[in-house]
Amino acid sequence: MGKVRINNMLVYTYNGVMGEEKVLGQKLELDIELTLPLEEAGKTDDLHQTISYADVYTDVKTALEAKSFDLIEAVTYYVLDILGEKYGDMLEHALVRTRKYHVPIAGFFDNVEIEMERDY
């Protein structure tokens, strides 16, 4: 078993509860961690024995740029759905963290983050 990770993936989206967020848009940052058997890929050097992180990046970016949500909880859940639909036959487990930096609340903090995980 092993892990494939994409860290600090940036996607520009039009998500949020406030109207301005859906008009102006903002970047979201994601961490995606995939757990799957990697031994054969390691032994054979064969891309077909693993999940291509380039494909995961493209699939997630394309899907998130085409859809709008109110909540980053829904964004995170949707990414887990995408991963399961496309890679569920190889995937054992996935963890997704979604961070939002431009949050329309008064206060001082770096970001808000939602973390969800799922077994496949």
TrEMBL record:
Keyword field contains Cell wall biogenesis/degradation: no
GO process annotations (BP): folic acid biosynthetic process; tetrahydrofolate biosynthetic process
The organism's place on the tree of life at top rank: Bacteria
Keyword hit for Flavoprotein: no
InterPro entries from the UniProt entry: Dihydroneopterin_aldolase, FolB_dom, GTP-CH-I_C/QueF
Pathway stated in the Swiss-Prot or TrEMBL entry: Cofactor biosynthesis; tetrahydrofolate biosynthesis; 2-amino-4-hydroxy-6-hydroxymethyl-7,8-dihydropteridine diphosphate from 7,8-dihydroneopterin triphosphate: step 3/4
Any one GO cellular component localisation term in the record: cytoplasm
EC number: 4.1.2.25
Keyword entries, A-Z: Folate biosynthesis, Lyase
Pfam families for the chain: FolB
GO molecular function, one term: dihydroneopterin aldolase activity
Catalytic activity field: 7,8-dihydroneopterin = 6-hydroxymethyl-7,8-dihydropterin + glycolaldehyde
Domain (Dihydroneopterin aldolase/epimerase): residue spans on this chain: 4-118
Family membership: Belongs to the DHNA family.
PANTHER family, per database record: DIHYDRONEOPTERIN ALDOLASE 1-RELATED
Function: Catalyzes the conversion of 7,8-dihydroneopterin to 6-hydroxymethyl-7,8-dihydropterin.
Protein known as: 7,8-dihydroneopterin aldolase
